[in-house]
Design brief:
With 342 residues, this protein is an alpha/beta fold. The protein folds into two domains: 2-134, Rossmann fold, CATH 3.40.50.2000; 153-341, Glycogen Phosphorylase B (Rossmann fold, 3-Layer(aba) Sandwich). Helices cover 43% and strands 13% of the residues. This is Heptosyltransferase.
Length: 342
Amino acid sequence: MIGDVLTSSILCEAIKKKNPNAEVHFLVNQHTIPVIENHPYIDKMVVFTKEVEKSTAKFFQFLQQIKKEHYDVVIDVYSKPASTLIGKFSGAALKIGYQKWYTKLAYNELYTYKAKAETQAGLAIENRMHLLQSLDKSYAKELKPKIYLTEAEIASAKKILQQENLADKDLLMIGVLGSSEEKSYPLPYLAKVLDTIVETTDAELLFNYIPKQLTTVQKLVNLCEPETQKRIHLSIYGKSLRDFMALTSLCKAFIGNEGGAVNMAKALDIPTFSIFAPFTKRAAWALYENAKNVSVHLEDYQPETYGELSLKEIRKDASKYYQFFKAEYFLEKLKNYLKEVL
C-alpha cells in the first residue's frame, strides 16, 4: 500500500546518508511508484507488477532477475511469504526481516515488532528503522518520510488553481474516502465535519477522489448544507497521484480519512487532521502527531470498547463501530485545530 511504501523509503535515505557509496534498490508494487519518484536516495526501483504477482512462471523469472543482482544485504519490511521468498532467492549474505514462523527459514537477522513507540514518529516508523540495527547500531530511531515534487509539477498545480480563481484562497484538501469502504468515515458524519469547516472558516474545499468515485462523492455533497456545497470544487482533483500531491502541497491542511493520502500530506509537510477507522492500530500510524498533525479515533471516546474487543473483532463489524463514532465527539477539537492551521 502507498503508506507502507512511503514509510519504508526512509530506510533508503538512512542507509545512503551513512553509506554514500552504497547502491540502494527499492522493490515496490507498480501502482505505488509515484510516491517515490525523484527520490534522491533510491538508485534503482525494482518493480513488482500485477503480471508477476498473478503468474507463477513470471514470478519465477522475477526471482531469477533478483538473483542476478548479487545483493549483499536484503531488508524485508513486508515480511510476507512472497517477499520472504524473494529475499531468500536473492542469495544475500545478510537477510533481515520480521519474526514470523516462515521467515526463520530464510533470514538470518529477525526482529519483533515493538509494541510501544519511543518517539513522536509512531511505530510504523520506529519498527522500520529498527531493522537497520543489524547494519549499524548508531542509526536513529526515527526519520520522517519525504516526497520530492518537481518545480514543474507544483507550477502546473498552481496554474489549475489560478484558472479557478483559487490561488489566493485558504484551501483544504479533504480525504472523502478511505482506501476501502470499511476504512471510510460514514458520509452523513463527514458532511457534518465539512459543514463545521465552512461555518467556522473561509476555506475552500478540494476533494481527494478519482472519477469512478464521483457518484459516492456527489452523495456526500448532497448531504452538506448549501453554503458548504458552494465551497466544494469537484472540478479540481488529482488526475494522477503526482497531481494530487502537487495540489495538496498548496493546501493549508489535509482533513479526512486516515490512510495513504494522510501519509503523503505529512511527507509534504502539510498539516493533517486524520479520522481513524475504528479497527486501525493508532499507535502504528499516528505518525509525528503534534499541534498540526492531529488524529481522532473511536478509542478516544469509547475506550471501554477496546478493553472488551480486539481490533480484529471490531473490523468484522466495522460499519457498526463507525456508526458509534459520531462527528459531534470531535467537532470542537476540529474547530481548535482549524484555528491553529489557518
